[in-house]
């Protein structure tokens, strides 16, 4: 099994096959618009602009589970991110990332953590780096700013 086996909902609620990203390096992130980590959108967009032409995608999954820090509709969240942070990477339907209603993709991502230190997503802006074959190769916690793991993204992109 790999990330490419999952189907998620796009912003409009339509099924979207992650196999559409086959062969690309992915950074999958659960986000929130009203979180102390929300300014990381700037760093994420910079990573995206730097590496997207080399086969890199960021997949943004808004999540309102942590102190309701992602209020609003999917469209409102998209407008906020597009206007305030000029994000261009794909954003998907708001989801849950832990518990009984967790998006299966995130249950899978958490199960791939080798250290098992943090099995569940513990907060907004948990990030999973996925190689071109769909395997989770790194996990970055909410406090890990995009600048801090750019070298890992670069290495994954350059590893063809």
Verbal overview:
This protein has a four-stranded mixed beta sheet with strand order 4-3-5-6, covered by helices on one side. The protein has a two-stranded antiparallel ribbon with strand order 1-2. The protein is globular, with a radius of gyration of 14 Å. Helix content is 26%, strand content 18%. 35% of the residues are buried. It has four helices and six strands, in the order βββαβααββα. The mean pLDDT is 91. With 160 residues, it is of the alpha+beta class. The protein has one domain (3-18, 25-158): Glutaredoxin (3-Layer(aba) Sandwich), CATH 3.40.30.
What is the gist of this entry?
By secondary structure, the chain is an alpha+beta fold. The protein has helices at residues 40-51, 74-85, 104-111, 150-158; strands spanning 7-9, 15-17, 25-31, 56-62, 127-130, 136-140.
Annotate the secondary structure layout.
Layout: E1 7-9, E2 15-17, E3 25-31, H1 40-51, E4 56-62, H2 74-85, H3 104-111, E5 127-130, E6 136-140, H4 150-158
Parallel strand pairs: 3-4
Antiparallel strand pairs: 1-2, 3-5, 5-6
Structural features:
two-stranded antiparallel ribbon; alpha+beta; Glutaredoxin
Q: Roughly what percent helix?
A: 25-40%
Estimated radius of gyration: 14 Å
> What is the structural class?
alpha+beta
Strand elements, count: 6
| Gap between N and C termini | 20 Å
Strand content: 15-25%
Q: Report strand order across the widest sheet.
A: 4-3-5-6
CATH topology: Glutaredoxin
> Which CATH top level class fits?
Alpha Beta
- What is the CATH architecture descriptor? 3-Layer(aba) Sandwich
């Amino acid at each position: 099994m790999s990330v490419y086996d999952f189907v998620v909902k796009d912003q409009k609620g339509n099924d979207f096959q992650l196999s559409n990203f086959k062969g690309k390096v992915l950074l999958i992130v659960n986000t929130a618009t009203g979180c102390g980590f929300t300014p990381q959108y700037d760093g994420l967009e910079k990573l995206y602009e730097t590496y997207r032409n080399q086969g890199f995608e960021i997949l943004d999954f808004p999540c309102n589970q942590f102190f309701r820090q992602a209020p609003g509709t999917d469209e409102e969240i998209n407008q906020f991110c597009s206007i305030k942070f000029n994000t261009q990477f794909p954003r998907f339907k708001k989801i849950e990332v832990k518990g009984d209603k967790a998006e299966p993709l995130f249950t899978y991502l958490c199960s791939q953590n080798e250290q098992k230190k943090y099995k569940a997503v513990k907060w907004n802006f948990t990030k999973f780096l996925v190689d071109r074959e769909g395997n989770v190769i790194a996990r970055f916690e909410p406090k890990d700013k995009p600048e801090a793991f750019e070298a890992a993204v670069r290495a994954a992109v350059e590893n063809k």
